[in-house]
Amino acid sequence: MDSVENGSDVRHRRRLTTRIKGSLRDVRSQLALLNRQVGTRLELRDVDFDCLDLINSHGPISPSALAKQAGLHPATLTGILDRLEGAGWIVRERATGDRRAVLVRSLPERLGEVYDLLSGMNAAVDDLCADYTPDQLELLADFLARVTTAGRAATDDLVAG
Q1: Would the pLDDT of 67 be above 60?
Q2: pLDDT digit string (tens) for 80-139?
Q3: Is the pLDDT of residue 1 over 70?
Q4: If we measure between CA atoms, which residue out of 128, 132, 150 comes closest to residue 24?
Q5: Burial degree of 66 (CB within 10 A; 0-12, 13-18, 19+)
Q6: Taking the CA atoms of the chain, what radius of gyration do you get in angstroms?
Q7: How far is it, in rounded angstroms, from Cα 74 to Cα 26?
Q8: In 3D, which of 1, 87, 10, 2 has the Cα closest to residue 51?
Q9: Nearest Cα residue to 55 out of 86, 77, 31, 29
Q10: Per-residue confidence at 161, pLDDT binned at 50, 70, 90?
Q11: 92 - beta bridge partners?
């Protein structure tokens, strides 16, 4: 009887894992659509909006570190930074410790436009999170962090191979 339950448990676990993978694909697609809409409203190309998000999250950041984070060739990134700077989203500044080094940072006065467009999604996520206990939120946060790490590793493998 244990082996039947074991087999049943394995199949159930496999179905749940498949469902989670499908949900992650759905989330990725939906967030890509949301980001595309936000970028369109802000008159930003998808890749420009992605880089702006990385700069906002990790900045001030060097262009070479940003290129690595974004998986872009440095020459491609230069054009993106030129567009973002020209549109008033970012500034390039000399690093204080090394005047030869350049850092890129977002301009907070412009980021309110992004936050306004994402406010509906942020409110919806706040409402969803209110339905979970702190322990459940810890589990979800851990899972999402581990999925992010796995995605980064898979990306690194593709770049290396």
Answers
A1: yes
A2: 999 999 999 999 999 888 878 999 999 999 999 999 999 999 999 999 999 999 999 999
A3: no
A4: 150
A5: buried
A6: 20
A7: 31
A8: 87
A9: 77
A10: confident
A11: 104
Under 8 Å between Cβ of 81 and 61: no
Output the six-digit token pair for 17: 């894992």
CA distances from 54 to 1, 81, 102, 134 (A): 53, 12, 16, 28
Total Cβ atoms within 10 A of residue 37: 11
Helix axes 74-86, 46-58, angle to 10 degrees: 90
> Around 57, how many Cα atoms within 13 Å sit in the side-chain half-sphere?
10
Report phi then psi at 103, rounded to 5.
Answer: -120, 145
Cβ-contact 80, 51 below 8 angstroms = yes
Cα 56 versus chain centre, distance:
11
Residue identified by tokens 């690194």 is 156
CA angle 124, 143, 150 (to 5 degrees): 115
Least confident of 27-31, 55-59, 77-81, 157-161: 157-161
Q: Which two tokens stand for residue 5?
A: 């339950």
